[in-house]
Structure formats: C-alpha cells, structure tokens
Amino acid sequence: MVQQVTKGIKISVETNFEGSFYKDYKMHYAFGYKITIENQSKDSVQLNTRKWHILDALNNKEIVSGEGVVGKKPVIKPGESHTYTSGCLLTSPFGAMHGHYNMVNFTTTQRFKVTIPTFKLSAPFALN
Hints:
This protein is mostly beta strands.
C-alpha cells in the first residue's frame, strides 16, 4: 500500500492485476486500484476534479482528467473517508500512475491540490 498526506488529506492506494487480453491485435494488461481519501483535517472538503498521469514500461504516457471520481464529487467531513475502485489498461505488464485531486475547503472556500502518490502496477507473472 502506498500512502501520502497533503494538507490533512491522506491518500492510500492498493493495486491488483486483473488479467490480460488481446484487443486490436495488441496484448493489454488490466489493473485495478482502490483509493481511500481520508480527511484528517478539521474542515469539510469536497473533491471536484482529478488528473492522472499513467505510464507503462514502453514509455507510453496517458493523461486523464475529469470531474470527480467514478461519477461522484464526494464531500468528506473531518475524520471521515471516501473509498472507490477503478482501473486502467496498459500495453505492457509494468507501469505506474500518479496525479492529484483538486479539492475545496468548505470553511475557508480555498481550493487546493492533493497529491496522489506514485504507485506501481505490475503483473505478478512478469516478476522474478
């Protein structure tokens, strides 16, 4: 598990390999990840947008950004957390992801970024 705290918001990431398959004459590797966003601050916050940098072992880079996470813009009160699962496809059995969430503090109305730490994606069969 990878964890990081930014401005009182703790991000924890767990990953798993889902499998591989052929698509458009290429091998694809499916990975899942579970993210827990824990509010350790004294103020309620809301996650508004996200931005991901997805890299694979072949040096392909994909940037994904958008509203909320899996269709939600969660409000997280002090001491509470929000957990969601998602996934990505790579064209190699190894890769990594990192990014950030854009959030707003409801007490101060200030917008701030929360770092999503770099986490590795690896298919177990490819490891020595």
